[in-house]
Amino acid sequence: MSAPLPDTVPVIQTFGLSKVYSPGSEAEVVALKGVDMRVGRGDFVAIMGPSGSGKSTLMNLIGCLDTPSTGSYLCDGIDVSTLDAEELAILRREKIGFVFQGFNLLPRMSALENVAMPLGYAQVPVPERAARAQEALAAVGLAERAGHKPSELSGGQQQRVAIARALINKPPILLADEPTGALDSKTGEEILSLFKRLRDDDHTVILITHDPEVAAHADRILVMRDGELHEEPGSGRRDSGFGGATP
Ligand SMILES: Nc1ncnc2c1ncn2[C@@H]1O[C@H](COP(=O)(O)OP(=O)(O)OP(=O)(O)O)[C@@H](O)[C@H]1O
Ligand SMILES: [Mg+2]
């Protein structure tokens, strides 16, 4: 895929992004209303907001898992609406790592095999996969646990395996939907410091959370209310140079 763009180009930029589920039917839901969002490289952004306000809907669009009803989305400068299914799959693989609350690890596989999984799709030669997966596990502090199955790991360790898997292709964007929701506060802190290290490494991290203490770790806090995205006034420890959400 194309070479990385200069730092001045937002990694994520949306214009009037809207999503209507089951349009025109009785079950119609307007989940997202004209979201304008700009996120820069090396930004750590938290998205908060009540249940049903549209956070996961937005995350699915940013992750190219779903398409908007109206509006557009540039991922690392690429208008995703111009891509066909195969090009989208490649973009997802190269640009985006996902971490979900439920971990989604395969129970019969070891930590190492779970982490190496995406490399199969990326056509990395077999001998290289184990080495890369071992390196990714070491980066999340789990080098010694590579041979363990998920059931033999703690919740926080399983979440770190999921993060290592999300990062195995070194994607510039990490999307995490409630990654600390199922964890005790100490383990949650470990995950958050891992995200901060990724941010310092120039990854862009977008984190959905219900917990204000978790959100306080981010550089910016965006709040979703009834399908509209707002920048939390006073949030933003670091100035990304990008204006944020709707004014
Ligand atoms: N596939 C779908 N089909 C129809 N409606 C949907 C679908 N997915 C979500 N919705 C609706 O869209 C709205 C936004 O849902 P979304 O999952 O984005 O909320 P959320 O902010 O992530 O909530 P939570 O904090 O509970 O995870 C809700 O009213 C939800 O019922
Ligand atoms: Mg959700």
From TrEMBL:
Chain coiled-coil ranges: none
Pfam families registered for this protein in UniProt: ABC_tran
Keywords: ATP-binding, Nucleotide-binding, Transport
Residues in ABC transporter domain copies: 12-247
InterPro entries to which the protein is assigned, alphabetical: AAA+_ATPase, ABC_transporter-like_ATP-bd, ABC_transporter-like_CS, ABC_transpr_LolD-like, MacB-like_ATP-bd, P-loop_NTPase
Origin: domain of life: Bacteria
CDD domains, per database record: ABC_MJ0796_LolCDE_FtsE
Nucleotide-binding among keywords: yes
Record-level Gene Ontology MF annotations: ATP binding
Protein name (record): ABC transporter ATP-binding protein
